[in-house]
C-alpha cells in the first residue's frame, strides 16, 4: 500500500480566484490526509502581468500556466491547480492532467447594475466580454447590442462595470460563486443561449507524469462524470486546433451511461453559427467529442477558425 503524503506543495497563480481554487484543493487534500502538511506556492504568471493587450497578441497558449509548470519541474511544487478552461488541450509529456474535480455551475452569467438580462438592454448598450465565444453568441441573438473587450481579473472587470464603462458584462458563474460574488449575478445565460467553453466551471490538477504516487494520492479528488465531460469537450477543442482564442464552445453532460455533447463554432460578428450535437456511451467520451468536432468541420468550421488564429482573446 502506498504511504500517505507528508508534505504537498500546490503551485497557484496569486489571483483571488486562483487562490480560492488552490485553497479548495488544499482543504480537500488536508481532510483526505490529516497528517500531511499542504502549503501553497503563489506565483505571478506572464498572463497576469500583461493587462493592456489582447492575450492572443502576446502569444502562446498557456500564458497562465508556464511558470507553474516550471515550479513542478524544479521540484518547488508537487501539483498545480488550474481552472480547467485555461488549461491548453494539448498538454504533453512530462506533464499530466491528473485529476478533474466536480464541476460547479458551467453557465455564463449576466452581470449589470441597471438591467436584469440581455433581453432588457436597450439597443446600442455596451456589453463587456473578451471571449469570442460569448461575443459570437450574443451578437447572433442580440445584433442591436455592442460588444466590447473586457480584460483583467474578476475584481478588475467588475470595477470597470461599476465605473459605468459597460451596461453589462458576461462572466463565468463559477468564478463569481467561488469569490462570494454570486449576488452580482442578475441572471444566467442558459446553455442553449450561451454554450459554455470546454472545461468551464471545473478544476484540473496538473502533475509530472514521473510522479505516479502523486497521481494515486489525487485519485480520490477525481469526479468521474466531470472527467468524462472534460475528455469530450477538450477533444472537440483539440480537433479544431483549439486554444481559448477562437469562437468555439463545447459542453457535455452525463446522464446515467449516456454523454451528450453540444458544440459550436461561430463568426465573432454572429453572422454565421455552426452547431453540432452527439450522444453515446460515456465510455466513448473522447471519440464522441472528436465526432462533434468532425460535424463542425464538415459544415466548414475550418474557414471560420483559420482567419481567427491570428486574433482573439479569452475563453
Ligand atoms: N477566462 C478566465 C477564467 N478562467 C476561469 C474563469 C472562471 C471559472 C471557470 O470557468 O471555471 C474565468 C473567468 C471568466 O471566464 O469569467
- CATH class of the largest domain, named Alpha Beta
| Helix run count | 11
- Which geometry do the CA atoms define? globular
Distance between the termini: 41 Å
CATH fold naming of the largest domain? D-Maltodextrin-Binding Protein, domain 2
Could you give the count of β-strands? 13
Mean pLDDT: 93
List the helices and strands in order. EHEHHHEEEEHEHEHEEHHEEEHH
Widest sheet: strand order?
Answer: 2-1-3-10-4
Largest sheet: 5 strands, mixed
Radius of gyration: 19 Å
CATH architecture level-2 label of the largest domain = 3-Layer(aba) Sandwich
What percentage of amino acids are in beta strands?
15-25%
Q: Pairing-aware structural class of the strands and helices? A: alpha/beta
How many structural domains can be distinguished in the coordinates?
3
CATH superfamily of the largest domain: Periplasmic binding protein-like II
Ligands, ions, cofactors: the ligand NCc1[nH]cc(CCC(=O)O)c1CC(=O)O
Unreliable spans are none
**Helical amount among residues, as a percent range?**
25-40%
Domain Porphobilinogen deaminase C-terminal: 228-297
Family: Belongs to the HMBS family.
Domain Porphobilinogen deaminase N-terminal: 8-215
Function: Tetrapolymerization of the monopyrrole PBG into the hydroxymethylbilane pre-uroporphyrinogen in several discrete steps.
Structure description:
It is a single chain. By secondary structure, this protein is of the alpha/beta class. Helix content is 32%, strand content 24%. The strands form three sheets. The protein has a five-stranded mixed sheet with strand order 2-1-3-10-4, sandwiched between helices. Strand 6, helix 5 and strand 7 form a beta-alpha-beta unit. The structure holds ligand PBG. Residues 83, 85-86, 171-172, 174-175, 200-201, 314-315 line the site of ligand PBG.
